[in-house]
């Protein structure tokens, strides 16, 4: 619950509200309802100033400094939100804005409707704070605030025909009205501060979007009423409590913060917003609530109470008009007989006589009797004169008359019995004031004075003259029964329908001046049709309507009786139900199995379609948290489920969402399958291609993962190697867990070539299940480099070696894959040394001779270096060369050593 503080201390909602995601709402507590419901708003700096009718003042400090000002509340929960205060707060406009006629400033004022009927004292406060009396036919602007006095009411109509009416002692702001039929735009918003109110939507309730969302919002100190439909009544009492009676359509009612919502969708339903602003719901208005409503509401359109009130108002206006006419005639006669100065003097004297009303008791009594006989109130036309002293005397007289008027109840209006009461304590006559301003009579002769009559005040006393009317005998026409036409009503929805206007549309009465009223209704189906205050409400048979498909119809008969005068007539009306396409309803399903047992799920057994001729078919399925495999059966009538083998114990849930269709519309539901796990033994992998070991030169032992050897469907299973059988193994394998070494067994494989290796293995899982078998896998060959082997030769001093390709340095060099080898490089010196690089196929000078080494390995060596000549006979030296062989990708190097022996 929100905290309230009598001083403006902003407090946030408590922890419970925060946990419930309720938006923070700040509040300021006012002393009583006189400030909340009847106070006048003004601004002083950043403070909001509220003055109640007794003149007491309350300030809300810094109200206008907050981005979102606080709600103004009472202890009982009634309050005004910032938007409601804004609606009731007068705002100034530029001097070019006029409330009568067009707005020169470019549309700052928006005409939204007009006044259709006004009775009693009703005024309008425009958005700029200016006020004026409301008259029939007056234009209403967006932002206008209507204020009614005791026994008064006003009926307004918006541009689309929407009706808004305000009862006695009420105040309501017309916040917003929009209507554009072509654009499907219709919106009406009003703030009812206090008093009874009536609403009935016009064309905005007929727009296509009107049934989907609220087109009207009525805000009170304890509720927000969203309207999707046509008609409601309500009242805000002097404590701020709101009573709402639903008449048709749908009402969505919340508190002023948009919380605690209720929906009224049945005519007669009532919402009472009670202490702390929470809407409560009752199916019918209580007698107390109904009485309070009747006292607050304006009389119904066309009712007897309304006619009486209008007649009483017209009688008052007629007497006042007659008084004005007589006064004008008196002025005209006086002008014809006397000079203008005498008229002024006479008017002044008559004004003074009006101020001293006690001296004219006899005359007053006659007037009182006359007015009472008419059933109207006293009114006065106050006299004023141009002379300053005379004006002061007349002002005093007017004050006395005003005081006397305020002390008495001039008119009292109550429902259902409407009366107009007239009383008088001090007013003895009806003074009429005729003001003629700036009427100047100028004489061009300088000898004559110029006479200027600024204000001519003439007070006339109107005495009622009783006349005895002649007695006449009127002919009474014969009373004929009403004539009723045939009725057919189309029904395509389940919402209650008010059939009154439709049934009476083609009915008539040959007797003039007699109204048609439906007095009785009946039907074979219980509660199908009811009547209240002459309004007929029909409630459709939901089962019949739901069972009809698109294009299908069914009928029902109701009987109604119409009265006009003293006679009645009855007839039947045919209700035609029109079917519509109804979507199917898919209902969630549940199933259970173990992981080794596939199942068929008949999901359509609990799904249904109210259109009895529609057949349902499963059209799609989507996994949500699926581990198993599910598919739609060929006939579209069931689901086939294959569990996964993922658990050795326990259970898991598989979730799927499926969609059913009746051929036009669809619906979705969820299938929940509980699967019980069963331990499965490991299974050896029999496909050698499932695992390939790529051999790298000198790679040594590699680990083969157990999950590559065995497939155990149970998630999380732990396998232990018990034994290995290597009788058919080319390489070597040992436990730990499984370590394999190909050695040189597969060196013969060229790069990319595949060989098959195998070994036997026995394992056990954590539940004791044992599995064994021969595991085979692939070994992929890689390119092995050639191996060059050193060569030796000997030659005598000045001798020559010439070796052909068949007996050369490549003869003892090898390649594991048998790749052809070529000499790719040659240089002087040993492998471990550096030397002078030569070119294959060209002469390279060594330490003791020259060498020509060809790519095919053949070579020629001549020992002809100068150093050889010095060798003694039998002495030997060694000339060393390094050559490199290649298989096209990899290389290997070795030494060619040639021994040179000296000779004599």
Brief account:
Helices cover 14% and strands 35% of the residues.
Explain what this protein looks like in three dimensions.
With 904 residues, the protein is α+β, with helices and mostly antiparallel strands. It folds into 7 domains: 15-76, no CATH class; 87-94 and 108-298, Sandwich (Jelly Rolls); 306-453, no CATH class; 487-578, Sandwich (Immunoglobulin-like), CATH 2.60.40; 589-676, Sandwich (Immunoglobulin-like), CATH 2.60.40.10; 683-780, Immunoglobulin-like, CATH 2.60.40; 791-901, Immunoglobulin-like (Sandwich). The chain is 14% helix and 35% strand. The strands form 13 sheets. The chain has a 15-stranded mixed sheet that branches. Helix 6 packs parallel to helix 8.
Feature tags:
7 domains; alpha+beta; elongated; Jelly Rolls; 904 residues; single chain; 12 helices; four-stranded mixed β-sheet; disordered N terminus; 15-stranded mixed β-sheet
User: What is the total domain count?
Assistant: 7
Class derived from helix and strand content: alpha+beta
What is the architecture of the largest domain at the second tier of CATH?
Answer: Sandwich
Q: Please give the CATH class of the largest domain.
A: Mainly Beta
Q: Secondary-structure map with pairings?
A:
Layout lengths: L14 H5 L7 E3 L3 H4 L3 E5 L2 E5 L5 E4 L10 E3 L5 E2 L1 H7 L22 E9 L2 E4 L5 E3 L5 E3 L3 E4 L4 E6 L4 E4 L4 E10 L4 E16 L15 E5 L2 E14 L5 E13 L7 E3 L5 E4 L5 E4 L4 H10 L7 H34 L2 H16 L5 H14 L13 H19 L32 E3 L9 E3 L33 E5 L5 E2 L1 H5 L12 E7 L5 E4 L2 E4 L3 H6 L5 E12 L2 E12 L10 E6 L4 E3 L15 E7 L5 E4 L6 E4 L8 E11 L4 E11 L6 E2 L7 E3 L7 E2 L2 H4 E2 L8 E6 L6 E4 L2 E4 L12 E11 L5 E11 L10 E6 L3 E4 L18 E7 L14 E3 L4 E4 L5 E4 L3 H4 L6 E11 L4 E11 L3
Parallel strand pairs: 1-5, 15-16, 24-30, 31-37, 39-46, 47-54
Antiparallel strand pairs: 2-3, 3-4, 5-6, 7-10, 7-12, 8-9, 8-11, 11-14, 12-13, 13-15, 14-15, 15-17, 16-17, 17-18, 18-19, 18-20, 20-21, 22-23, 25-28, 26-29, 27-28, 29-30, 32-35, 33-36, 34-35, 36-37, 38-41, 40-44, 42-45, 43-44, 45-46, 48-52, 49-53, 50-51, 51-52, 53-54
Helix pairs in contact: 6-8
């Amino acid at each position: 619950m929100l905290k309230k503080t009598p001083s403006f201390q902003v407090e946030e909602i408590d922890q419970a509200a925060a946990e419930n995601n309720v938006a923070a709402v700040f509040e300021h507590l006012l002393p009583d309802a006189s400030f909340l419901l009847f106070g006048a708003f003004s601004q002083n700096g950043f403070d909001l100033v509220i003055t109640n009718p007794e003149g007491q003042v309350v300030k809300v400090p810094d109200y206008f400094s907050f981005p979102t000002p606080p709600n103004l509340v009472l202890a009982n929960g009634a309050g005004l939100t910032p938007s409601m205060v804004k609606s009731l707060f007068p705002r100034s406009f530029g001097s070019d804005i006029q409330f009568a006629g067009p707005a020169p400033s470019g549309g700052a004022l928006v005409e939204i409707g007009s006044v259709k009927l006004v009775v009693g004292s009703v005024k309008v406060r425009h958005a700029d704070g200016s006020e004026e009396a409301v008259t029939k036919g007056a234009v209403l602007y967006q932002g206008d605030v209507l204020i009614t006095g005791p026994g008064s009411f006003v009926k307004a109509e918006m541009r689309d025909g929407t009706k808004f009416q305000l009862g006695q002692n009420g105040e309501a702001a017309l916040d917003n009205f929009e209507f554009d039929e072509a654009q499907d735009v219709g919106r009406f918003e009003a703030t009812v501060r206090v008093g009874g109110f009536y609403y009935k939507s016009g064309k905005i309730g007929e727009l296509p979007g009107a049934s989907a969302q609220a087109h009207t919002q009525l805000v009170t100190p304890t509720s927000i009423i969203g309207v999707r439909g046509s008609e409601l009544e309500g009242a805000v009492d002097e404590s701020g409590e709101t009573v709402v009676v639903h008449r048709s359509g749908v009402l969505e009612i919340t508190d002023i913060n948009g919380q605690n919502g209720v929906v009224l969708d049945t005519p007669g339903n009532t919402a009472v917003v009670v202490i702390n602003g929470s809407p409560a719901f009752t199916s019918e208005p209580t007698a107390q609530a109904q009485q309070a409503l009747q006292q607050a509401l304006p009389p119904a359109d066309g009712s007897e109470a309304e006619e009486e009130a209008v007649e009483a108002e017209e009688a008052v206006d007629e007497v006042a008009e007659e008084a004005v006419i007589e006064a004008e005639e008196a002025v005209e006669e006086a002008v014809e007989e006397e000079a203008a100065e005498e008229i002024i003097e006479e008017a002044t004297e008559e004004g003074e006589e009006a101020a001293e009303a006690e001296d004219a008791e006899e005359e007053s009594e006659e007037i009182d009797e006359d007015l009472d006989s008419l059933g109207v109130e006293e009114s006065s036309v106050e006299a004023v004169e141009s002379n300053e002293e005379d004006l002061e005397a007349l002002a005093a007289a007017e004050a006395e008359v005003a005081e006397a008027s305020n002390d008495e109840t001039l008119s009292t209006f109550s429902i259902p019995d409407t009366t107009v009461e007239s009383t008088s304590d001090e007013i003895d006559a009806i003074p009429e004031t005729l003001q003629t301003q700036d009427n100047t009579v100028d004489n061009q002769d300088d000898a004559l004075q110029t006479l200027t009559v600024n204000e001519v005040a003439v007070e006339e006393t109107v005495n009622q003259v009783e006349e005895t009317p002649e007695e006449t005998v009127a002919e009474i026409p014969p009373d004929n029964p009403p004539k009723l036409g045939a009725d057919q009503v189309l029904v395509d929805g389940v919402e209650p329908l008010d059939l009154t206007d439709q049934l009476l549309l083609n009915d008539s009465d040959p007797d003039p001046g007699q109204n048609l009223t439906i007095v009785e209704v009946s039907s074979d189906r219980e509660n199908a049709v009811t009547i209240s205050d002459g309004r007929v409400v029909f409630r459709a048979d939901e089962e019949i309507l739901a069972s009809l498909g698109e294009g299908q119809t069914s009928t029902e008969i109701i009987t109604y009786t119409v009265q006009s005068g003293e006679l009645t007539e009855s007839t039947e009306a045919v209700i035609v139900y029109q079917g519509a396409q109804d979507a199917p309803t898919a209902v969630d399903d549940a199933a259970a199995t173990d992981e080794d047992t596939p199942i068929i799920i008949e999901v359509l057994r609990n799904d249904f379609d109210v259109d009895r001729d529609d057949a349902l078919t499963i059209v799609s399925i989507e996994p949500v948290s699926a581990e198993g495999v599910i598919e739609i059966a060929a006939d579209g009538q069931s689901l086939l489920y294959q569990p996964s083998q993922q658990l050795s114990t326990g259970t898991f849930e598989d979730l799927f969402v499926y969609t059913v269709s009746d051929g036009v519309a669809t619906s979705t539901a969820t299938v929940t399958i509980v699967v019980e796990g069963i331990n499965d033994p490991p299974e050896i992998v029999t496909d050698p291609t499932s695992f390939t070991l790529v051999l790298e030169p000198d790679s040594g032992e590699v680990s083969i993962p157990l999950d590559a050897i065995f497939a155990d469907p149970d998630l999380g299973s732990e396998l232990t190697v018990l034994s290995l059988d290597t009788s058919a193994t080319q390489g070597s394998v040992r436990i730990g867990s499984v370590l394999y070494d190909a050695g040189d067994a597969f060196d013969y494989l060229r790069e990319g070539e595949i060989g098959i290796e195998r070994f036997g293995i026995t394992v056990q899982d954590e539940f004791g299940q044992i599995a064994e078998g021969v595991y085979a896998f692939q070994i992929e060959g890689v390119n092995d480099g050639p191996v060059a082997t050193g060569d030796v030769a000997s030659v005598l001093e000045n001798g020559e070696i010439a070796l052909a390709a068949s007996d050369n340095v490549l003869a003892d060099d090898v390649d594991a894959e048998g790749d052809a080898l070529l000499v790719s490089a040659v240089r002087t010196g040993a492998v471990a040394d550096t030397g002078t690089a030569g070119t294959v196929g060209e002469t390279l000078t060594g330490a003791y001779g020259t060498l020509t080494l060809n790519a095919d390995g053949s070579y020629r060596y001549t020992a002809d270096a100068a150093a050889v000549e010095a060798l003694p006979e039998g002495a030997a030296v060694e000339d060393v060369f390094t050559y490199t062989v290649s298989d096209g990708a990899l290389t290997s190097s070795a030494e060619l050593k040639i021994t040179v022996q000296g000779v004599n």
